[in-house]
């Protein structure tokens, strides 16, 4: 009845062998045979272990099938999750790209706006600090500056327009930030859930230990069945030996009771003839196997316990797979929920970009252009005023020069008039007595007198002359006399901006 033994039974096996060696030469009495029979019959109670082993194998086989399904399903879902997460992160990066591009250009345009506005304010400050020369204004006029002659409402209106534009941009940006924050929170929760997915323990050689565990469990079941078969054979041998021993059947029935537990437990069946040598050989085998019954029973029970342990490992692995499958299912639900929200995030990003292209960007560019134009205009205004002062000074010089020329001409005309009077008087004294007055009506007329005077622009354009109108020319408005330092400052400004 030799069969494989587990290491746990090695000690009892050694003790049994020593006992067997001591009993080898002892004669097998009826009492010995009955004891062997009772022990063998009791050993058949290990059949419950085989029943349990059968249940364990069936359960393990079902779990083996479930393992294949869950392993494939979990691997497939992990791939799907990975692809979906990659897609969601790609969308998030795309939103970041749009936001970054807009933000970069917005900061540059905002810098350009500030630069233009600062330049305009600098120009306006110059206008505020540049007084109008008093000689250019009517007497009693309050002191004015160049700034008093411009329309400042255009500047303030444009400033208000740009501030409102920037406020709208900030509102759109805040809406986008809220959307991206919600998106980031969803992705963080998703990554956290993925990180917390139970990881099923794997072996180094096989992605799943269950096939190997099942193989070992099935092997233990087969070995236990073979061991139990050896117990059945030993039991049948005990029955046969008792039947071939006088009084054996009665002694066995008395020892075990009348209720048989095995088909071989039938002492009333006809006996087959057996020689004494065959009987002794049978008793020798019986005596040898009887010492191994306890070891075989122990082995069957140990294999049953090992099968329970293996099934626990299988169930533990399956539970890991089930937990992993449940966690992956929850992650898929999260992905489905986030995917539904992504449309809103994309729409917010598009709205932000459209607002930038249609509102913020063109308004900022227009504002920069208008402020540059205003700054250039007001700089030209300041330069024109400086050139006006220079022009007034030049006009004053030309006026003085013309006045001197007119005075010189007037003196020459007056001298010629006096000379003409004297010449006429001398002619009248020398020839007047000899010439009748009616020979020429203008003989005794005084010389014509000429006068140099300023002519008004209006009379000059109308082609009128003093002699035709019989009156004096209307005098032109006098050109103011500017201080030398005023003119020099004006020249300096003109040269600096040329």
TrEMBL record:
GO terms for molecular function: molecular adaptor activity; protein kinase activator activity. Residues 1-25, 452-471 are annotated as: Disordered. InterPro entries: Atg17, ATG17-like_dom. Residues 1-17 have a biased composition (Low complexity). Residues 43-435 form the Autophagy protein ATG17-like domain. It is a peripheral membrane protein. Residues 389-426 form a coiled coil. The keyword Cytoplasm applies. GO terms for biological process: autophagosome assembly; autophagy of mitochondrion; piecemeal microautophagy of the nucleus. GO terms for cellular component: Atg1/ULK1 kinase complex; phagophore assembly site membrane. Keywords: Autophagy, Coiled coil, Cytoplasm, Membrane. It is found in: Cytoplasm; Preautophagosomal structure membrane. The keyword Nucleotidyltransferase does not apply. Autophagy-specific protein that functions in response to autophagy-inducing signals as a scaffold to recruit other ATG proteins to organize preautophagosomal structure (PAS) formation. Modulates the timing and magnitude of the autophagy response, such as the size of the sequestering vesicles. Plays particularly a role in pexophagy and nucleophagy. Belongs to the ATG17 family. PANTHER family: AUTOPHAGY-RELATED PROTEIN 17. This is Autophagy-related protein 17. It comes from Neocucurbitaria cava. The lineage of its organism: Eukaryota, Fungi, Dikarya, Ascomycota, Pezizomycotina. The gene is atg17.
